[in-house]
Amino acid sequence: MSIPLIIGLISLLLILIIGYNVIIQYRQRLESAKQQELAKQVAIIDATEELISNASHLPYSKELLVCLNKRILYALETIAEVDTKDRSLKQRIHHVNEQLTHLETHFDQTNVVAFQVPNSDRQAIGMLQLVKRLKNVLKGEHSKGRIATQAYVLENTRLDNMQLRINIENVVKRANDARLKRQFGTAKQLLKKGIDVLSSRNDAYATKAQQKLQYMLNEIDNNMSVSSEQERQQLLDKDNDELDVLFQPKRKW
Fold it and tell me: Whose CA is closest to 99, among 131, 76, 127?
C-alpha cells in the first residue's frame, strides 16, 4: 500500500472522527437547550399553580384567574412543541382549556373570598409578597401581548389598592398593639406614616382609612394629655403632702 494512500485514509478517518464529534456536540447542545426549555416551562406551571392555590387568601378577580390559567396553557403548549413524544400533554391542555371556558362562562363573583385583615406582621408580609408576585406575572404577560392593556391597567390598579389596604390594616394593628403596651410614641409614628401614604390618594377607601387613622392619632394625643395632667396633679398632691408634714403644728408634750 502506497504512502499517499495511507495518508489519505488517515486524513479521511480524522475527518470522519471530527465530523462525528461535531454532530454529537450539536445534538448534545440541542438536548441541553431542550431540557432547559422544558425545565423553564415546568417551573412556570408550578409557580402559577401555586399562585392559583392562594386564591383562598386574597380576592382574585375573574381576569386574574383567566390570566393565570392562560399562562399555564401557553407553557403546556410550548412543552408540547418541544417534547412531541409526551402523549399526556394533550389531555392536560384539554383540561386547562375546559377550565378557561368554565371561568369565562360560569365565574361567580359571590364565591370570591373576602379580603382578610392580616393578624400578624408575618401574615401581612406573606400577603404583600403574594401581591407582588401577581403583579410581576401580570406585567410579564402584558409585555408578551397575552393580556390587553386596559385589562392589565385595571387589574394592576386593583392589586395596588389591595397592597395599600394590607399595609394600612397592618399599621392599624401594630398601632393598637403599641397602645396596649403604652408605647405611644411608636403608635403615633405608625399612624402618621399611614396618614402620609393615604394623603396622596383620592378614593373612598383612602378617605375612610385616613379618617380612622386620624381619629386614633387624636385619641392617643388626648389620652397622653389626660395622662400628663394626672401625673402633674399627682406630683402636686405629693408636694402638698410633704409641705403639710413639714409645716404641721408641733405638738406640745
Answer: 76
